[in-house]
Amino acid sequence: MHMADALLSPAVGGTMWAGSLGVIVYCAKKLSGKMDEKMIPLMGVLGAFIFAGQMINFTIPGTGSSGHIGGGMLLAILLGPYAAFLVIASVLVVQALFFADGGLLALGANIWNLGIYPAFIGYPLIYRALVKKSSNTKAITIASIISVIISLQLGAFSVVLETKLSGITELPFSTFLIMMQPIHLAIGLIEGIVTAGIILYVRSLRPDIVDNLEVVKNTYSAGSLKKVLIIMSLLAIITGGAFSWFASTNPDGLEWSIEKIYGKPEVPERGNPVTENLSKIQEKTAILPDYTFPSKGEEQEKSPSWPAVDTGTTVSGIIGGIMVLALVIVFGMGIRIMNRNRAKT
Amino acid sequence: MRFDEEFFNLGYLDTLSYKDTFVHRLDPRIKIIVTLIFILFVISFNKYEISGLLPFLLFPVFLLTAGNIPLKAIFKKVLFISPFAIFIGIFNPIIDRQVLIAPFGIPVSGGWLSFFSIIIKFILTVSTALLLIAVTSFPGICEALSRMKMPKLFVIQLLFLYRYIFVLLDVALRMVRARDARAFGNKGKDIKTFIRLISVLLIKSIDRAERVYQAMLARGFNGEIKVLKKYKLGFTDLIFGISSVLLFYIFRNYNISNYFGEIIKR
To answer: Which of A228, A247, A266 is the last residue of a domain?
Structure first.
């Protein structure tokens, strides 16, 4: 469920980048100084492990198709929230660069969707709360499954929200949600079972590893849950603020297209009491001023016809587009030939 | 087999990134910043735009050719990756049936326009991201990140991660081969075997991290890694940066494709 650049607007992509960068800096600050030096190679190697582990596939029971591990929750359980978040972010950086999974601008959104929820909600608020004694098999299994499912549900919901706010897709919000959430429920169930299985199997084979990790982890993550909650809500407020700032200063793709249709960046409101009241509330709360859900705007977009149905410009756009493509290819071939000639001499 | 291919690709991009061409020699910071600006410009177009996006192809083509990167290395990846964008985009033609343009008398709906717009944006952003790593080595990117004030801890473990990907992939590859040699069809690929297999891989990884740490201590590690500063922001870097962004700005504000079309029609 990696987000792609092509589905994001600059405002949404930029906001998610700002949020994720902030958390990376925060986590690094939290770790440095307090942590065991041992953690540095451990974090790097475990990040590489996630990669290698994702290459091993297995058959998903009952479907016959094959899947691989995501690993976010596993990292959070092994390393604790701060280190795990940094490792998840690193894995996504490498994936974005080498496998083009997602894209560079979408990287911020991907780090948020796949990193924040397991590291700062799934692990500290759910897993930790359910697993009191680290030897309780049943508790570990149940806690892993629940925490993975909730993290993935939140992640999937964020994907829907980000795509919808970017205004690229025509899918209605509810349809999109119905498509995304149940499938991630199934994925979460399997990922949860696998995560629990790994934790338990490693514990049975090498209890020393698990205990050592527990000690290393506890040297720095001895903060209370309340603190995590406060930080999360602060982050939400900050990103919300950044979002509204972005949305009001940089009109994104959606606003541009609306601007073309109406000549001004706002969609004229219909006299609907519900939307009127909603916008009043929105103005008062003002977390997202100037920003309504695209689905509402899009419905109204369709009613008037596109103003530029001018066959003339369309045809010249097509001819010119082909020309530009040809020129780009010629340009590329030119550089290739130049390189070859230089190599010969 | 998919596994070998992914492994091969990772190593292949890594090899390409150590070439010595004009774009390879540019400061990684400039390349990262210009690439991000490029992506921002591309996705800032409205959702129906197609012709205005085409001139932007110049940038990836420049990186590809000036960096002497084989087209095949990038093309294959761009074609097959991210079913997600297509999956989301394909609903647009179904839902948005309003006919927006009718070139040569063929009606084209808004949904198809926005679908192709997504595809073109996808090709532009994905190929540029892949080319960025193909013309900038990963250590180069890490150096740039640390000089752009990313937390040191983050950069150090990123370097570690990259170094050990190749080692651990090799271990995983051998495990998968061994399993496949003993498995018939899908037998042996069930979730139970998988959990044991990956647990062993995890144990091996953690043990390796321990050995690596011991070796580092023996060599005087104190929580810091000195990264060689190879690059310096020079005149060529600035010229490259400024002219690229200027060009993007022109492409964004003037529809070059339309101008060409107008000239030809006359």
So the answer is: A247
- Closest residue to B162, CB basis, from A94, A206, A302: A94
Please provide the average confidence, as pLDDT, over all residues in chain A. 74
Residue B15, chain A, CB below 8 Å: the answer is no
Nearest residue in chain A measured CA to CA from B169: A52
B100:A306 CB<8 A: yes
Q: Closest Cα to residue B74, out of A98, A224, A170?
A: A98
Q: Is residue B265 part of a domain?
A: no
A5 pLDDT band (50/70/90 cuts)? confident
Closest alpha carbon to B56 in A5, A199, A96, A282: A5
Average pLDDT over residues B75-101: 72
> What is the number of other CB atoms lying within 10 angstroms of the CB of residue B164?
24
pTM: 0.80
Is the pLDDT at A262 greater than 80? The verdict is no
Question: Do A271 and A130 share a structural domain?
Answer: no
* Residue in B45, B126, B153, B184 to test binding to A, most A beta-carbons within 10 Å: B153
- Taking the CA of residue A58 and the nearest CA in chain B, the distance in Å comes to 5
The answer to whether the complex's ipTM is over 0.85 is yes
